[in-house]
């Protein structure tokens, strides 16, 4: 008899799992349960699209609608999932319907984290997770001029760039003492800040926000050192894994669902992947990670023997008049001696540096000169010798 596969969530992890199952099992039934009203689309495009007034889900679909019917993948949209019963191999929906599975893949993704700042629930305090979020932000800013972004990571800067391109006044408030301290060294952070400010972005680091207050004309973001008026407050402070249904079903959860190299949880016949899963304690919540884990989960659910070994977690950014790539360890351990290989041109605002630990390349940062980016990324992952990459940097 053919197997029944139920996938919870239609993000890129869930869709990658469905595709992998079908490649391995041509006969099984595949049901994808999604609360989203749209066919799956490229979420990474959302923060890049605030300046696109006509943006629609159809423009950024992962696959055309007929892709699902051609592969006999039953995508059920607008579906609420109430519970998972591993002992009965059932998923209970919001209307009480029970869906049986032989193998279940949990891919319910994550939710934007909003710090519990007083005033965080005001009407014009927004996050970006869905295309409806983008539309709501565009509606607010259509007749307003001033936005404050909380968070200066890649997604925050992408959103800031989109608003600047719409000729809005944009301020970024970052809690860390400099931009992206986990991915960039001090010189790279300073250059990214300078280039951002040159494009009109007002940037403040080391900021502690105390309150968001509603005023007669909009809002004011209060900090320990000053205040910033805003028509829109956009929060970009990371994500939190959607794990409650898994917890309720007895799945082992830390910050996210714990999986092994085969994307298996501690519950038989239940796999997990994407933003809601962690492997060896790591959950980057990246698109590439979701694809790799989803593919692994799908192949193994269908009887394969695939192993996931992690991804590199590299950072890329294109916007604010710059290109940026960073991968690996950029001298982050104060107890370790690092050597560096450097080039670049301050007059042209370029920066290229490789970090070397025990004779091997362990990290790289490239700003406004991405030559040999792929080769250097591979060299970081392979711990290539410093001598072998001298000419690449």
Structure description:
It is built from nine helices and 25 strands. It starts with a strand and ends with a helix. 23% of the residues lie in helices and 29% in strands. The protein has 393 residues and is an alpha/beta fold. It is globular. The protein folds into three domains: 4-111 and 239-301, FAD/NAD(P)-binding domain (3-Layer(bba) Sandwich), CATH 3.50.50; 125-235, FAD/NAD(P)-binding domain (3-Layer(bba) Sandwich), CATH 3.50.50; 321-392, Enolase-like, domain 1 (2-Layer Sandwich), CATH 3.30.390.30. The strands form seven sheets. A five-stranded parallel β-sheet has the order 3-2-1-7-19. Strands 9-16-10-11-12 form a five-stranded parallel β-sheet, with helices on one face.
Question: Helices, strands, pairings?
Answer:
Layout: E1 4-8, H1 12-24, E2 29-33, H2 65-70, E3 73-76, E4 81-85, E5 90-93, E6 98-100, E7 103-106, E8 110-112, E9 125-126, H3 131-142, E10 146-150, H4 154-165, E11 169-174, H5 186-198, E12 202-205, E13 209-214, E14 219-223, E15 227-230, E16 232-235, E17 239-241, H6 244-248, E18 257-259, E19 270-272, E20 277-279, H7 287-301, E21 315-319, E22 322-328, E23 339-343, E24 351-357, E25 360-367, H8 373-381, H9 386-389
Parallel strand pairs: 1-2, 1-7, 2-3, 7-19, 9-16, 10-11, 10-16, 11-12, 18-20
Antiparallel strand pairs: 4-5, 5-6, 8-17, 13-14, 14-15, 21-22, 22-25, 23-24, 24-25
Summarize the structure.
This protein has nine helices and 25 strands. It has 393 residues and is of the alpha/beta class.
